User: Which sequence fits this backbone?
């Protein structure tokens, strides 16, 4: 079943799934996209303020995006997004962490300029296996309206 704009309601919290992050994945992502020692070198990372290897925040965002697409967006009338705001990483993600993502609907409104489209503003959160918050962001998506 396809989810349309009309199926999103303020206050809804949508579970987008979980993923476990391995050391090799952290290093591989960082070597390609964020090659800082705390992300790429377990020994060097021991001497940072983090006391060990941590995932790049951008890796955390990418993992959340994958969960969001696989478990929600691919099953909707998605028309894209104008972007995100207020991206935060309050705690680091470490090798072996299991991340759980959710999306809370903050606001919905029909588009004034495109009547076939609705706009949904939401807060994404990612928590680790201990329930500790490791990422938040505010996003906006465009969804098609339900056909008559």
Assistant:
């Amino acid at each position: 079943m396809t989810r349309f704009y009309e199926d999103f309601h303020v206050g809804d919290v949508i579970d987008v799934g979980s993923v476990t992050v391995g050391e090799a994945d952290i290093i591989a992502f960082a070597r390609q996209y964020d090659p800082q020692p705390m992300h790429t070198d377990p020994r060097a990372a021991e001497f940072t303020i983090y006391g060990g290897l941590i995932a790049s925040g951008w890796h955390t965002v990418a993992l959340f995006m994958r969960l969001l697409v696989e478990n929600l967006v691919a099953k909707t009338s998605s028309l894209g997004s104008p972007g995100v705001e207020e991206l935060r990483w309050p705690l680091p993600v470490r090798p072996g962490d299991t991340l759980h993502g959710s999306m809370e609907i903050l606001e919905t409104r029909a588009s004034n300029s495109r009547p076939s489209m609705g706009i949904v503003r939401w807060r994404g959160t990612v928590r680790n296996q201990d329930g500790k918050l490791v990422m938040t962001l505010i996003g906006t998506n465009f969804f098609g309206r339900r056909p008559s």
